[in-house]
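Final report, Chapter 2: Outcomes

The project's central promise was a pipeline that accepts a single protein chain and returns its three-dimensional structure in a standardized token representation, suitable for archiving and comparison. That pipeline is now operational. To close this chapter, we reproduce one record exactly as it appears in the project archive, with the input sequence first and the structure output second.
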Amino acid sequence: MRSLRWGAFVIAALVLVSAAPAALAWAPIRLPVVQRNNNFCFDRDIRIGNIVISGNRCYNTYLVNTANGVFLGLGPGGAPLVAPGQLGRLNYVPGSAPSSPMLYMLRLNTLVNLPVNAYRLVVPQFLLQNNRLVINVPVAQGRTAVLQSDERMPGEQDK
């Protein structure tokens, strides 16, 4: 009788131990950015530095060089402002600041081989690292600049 109880205990313990990881497993966090053609679509608002990028819309991405620094520019979705490999110029009137077709400009701490007040189309890589959105922006052959969101991406475990 004792061996039957002992066997039942061992079987119950094995069932509980094998079911525990499944019960504790968190649902994977979904990347909040989807690429559609040349556009990157954000499914929710994303905060990077002091900029909040509006969600539920698509953007083209550009590497922008101004007198104030280098930026990842998010331009309007749809057809790109310039063809891949071509340069666009920011409108410049002497004595005033250059105007930009970009909706958002996220500062990159890097140098680029791009004329001042010019931009070109880039295809960044969006990743999740430590539940934060990370954007790897190609700035030169074999070199990338990295941006990271300030907030953690919500997953099923956060609901």
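Archive annotation: The chain has one helix and twelve strands.
This record, like all others produced under the grant, will remain available to the consortium after the project formally closes.
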